[in-house]
Amino acid sequence: SQTIHQWPATLVQPVGSPLSLECTVEGTSNPNLYWYRQAAGRGLQLLFYSVGIGQISSEVPQNLSASRPQDRQFILSSKKLLLSDSGFYLCAWSQRAEYGYTFGSGTRLTVV
Amino acid sequence: GQQVMQIPQYQHVQEGEDFTTYCNSSTTLSNIQWYKQRPGGHPVFLIQLVKSGEVKKQKRLTFQFGEAKKNSSLHITATQTTDVGTYFCAATYYGQNFVFGPGTRLSVLP
Fold first, then answer.
1. Does CATH number 3.90.1440.10 belong to domain B5-109?
2. How far apart are the C-alpha atoms of A26 and A42, rounded to whole Å?
3. A32, A76, A93, B88: least buried by Cβ within 10 Å?
């Protein structure tokens, strides 16, 4: 069966520090991968998606970047965090649209 | 970009009462999906609707896609405390990525 792993679960980082969040998927090949951000009590905002290794599409211009160095690995990064980067970051994968997205357990990032 | 609206934003019900959340779009949708996010958790896929007027049921949950494919609803019969959480619709517009609605947060009072 397919599983998705996302870490860390919580993170407190100072303003200006770098960020690296990692997501891996097991049990499938060539998945579509997504990074979402959820502000407190709000909906889900798509940040990046990838349909293959090295292929990254950005939905929202921001202080973040994404990379997909391996088929089942998706990384969200920032060189210098801003206070506004705080939020709940969710990685998701999908093989086919009708199966829906499967989300990881998320990373709660607080920038102080 | 495309936007999907959900109403209500919050709903407080007494256990045993029914609950409905609505998802609306100004343009015709291709597919719509529904997700549930428990407090402190991550969204979990519930169902996908594709056809105009489609109705699907999962135990006490009934999902409906409007005839014009511009709106959808999720109805829960006889709510239980386990139904607590935020319900999101996610809509796609023919080949584009799914756009999530802002969600409806359901509280169930025992």
1. no
2. 29
3. A32
Q: Which residue has the tokens 């949950």?
A: B61
At B110, list the tokens. 């025992």
For residue A43, list chain B residues with Cβ-Cβ distance below 8 A: 88, 100-103
Eight-state DSSP code of residue A2? -
- Chain B positions in Cβ-Cβ contact with residue A90 (cut-off 8 Å): 42-43
pLDDT at B96: 80
Which residue in the set A42, A100, A105 is minimally distant from B45, CB to CB?
A: A100
Cβ pair B32, B47 in contact under 8 A: no
pLDDT in tens, B40-66: 999 999 999 999 999 999 999 999 999
What is the CATH number assigned to the segment(s) A3-111? 2.60.40.10
Confidence tier at A55 by pLDDT (50, 70, 90): very high
